[in-house]
Amino acid sequence: AQKITQTQPGMFVQEKEAVTLDCTYDTSDPSYGLFWYKQPSSGEMIFLIYQGSYDQQNATEGRYSLNFQKARKSANLVISASQLGDSAMYFCATFGNEKLTFGTGTRLTIIP
Amino acid sequence: KAGVTQTPRYLIKTRGQQVTLSCSPISGHRSVSWYQQTPGQGLQFLFEYFSETQRNKGNFPGRFSGRQFSNSRSEMNVSTLELGDSALYLCASSLSLVSYNEQFFGPGTRLTVL
User: Fold this and answer.
1) Taken in order A57, A63, A69, A73, is the CA torsion positive or negative?
2) B72-101 residues touching A, CB cutoff 8 A
3) Which of A64, A110, B19, B96 is the most exposed place for a label (fewest CB within 10 A)?
4) Residues B63-92: pLDDT tens digits?
5) Contact state of A44 with B107 under an 8 Å Cβ cutoff
6) If pLDDT is split at 50, 70 and 90, which confidence band does B100 have?
7) Distance from C-alpha of B21 to C-alpha of B97, rounded to nearest angstrom
8) What is the reported pLDDT for A28?
9) Which residues in chain A are contacts of B101 at CB distance < 8 A?
10) Pairing of strands B19-24, B31-38
11) CB-CB under 8 Å, B43 with A102
């Protein structure tokens, strides 16, 4: 079984600052994937970044990077130079048994 | 390439009615999964279809069912609606069952049961 833990229910960050959203995971699969999604108030789940368990390097996508620490079962999302449009819910998820298992999410609010 | 589309976007029903939601995956994607999102339970997996076959099912009562057509479009049906079925229903598509790095979601259907 898979489990995702996001310990930060909400965060407030000043615009242009970097922000780290925490995610720890637990899975029995030897090969797995880790995802981060952004969900604005409109409801759509927007794919941000993916990390494979065997990927040697941390994934990066523009202003998003994933700080993957396999031994600690940690997959934190780092957003550099935050923008007002980054205000949203952020979900960490892992893929296993042909389905995504999500964490409870972190509500990020960017302050001008 | 068009993204995942879901119809309708909003739906209001009353208890006891049934509802059908539709999901069209990204062109070429053959796997469609459905998720229910509520404030209390968060995001929960409903079921997954690949090549018109249900491959995996979450822990939901039999009132929740689905199917997939030969063009990979999928529908989910909820019969005898209950107030607790009010939720955002999201579908995700991927190229295949082993597409670990491809799970793209549609905009969701927001269902309100009165």
Assistant:
1) negative
2) 88, 90, 92, 97, 100-101
3) B96
4) 999 999 999 999 999 999 999 999 999 999
5) yes
6) low
7) 22
8) 85
9) 33, 50, 52
10) unpaired
11) yes
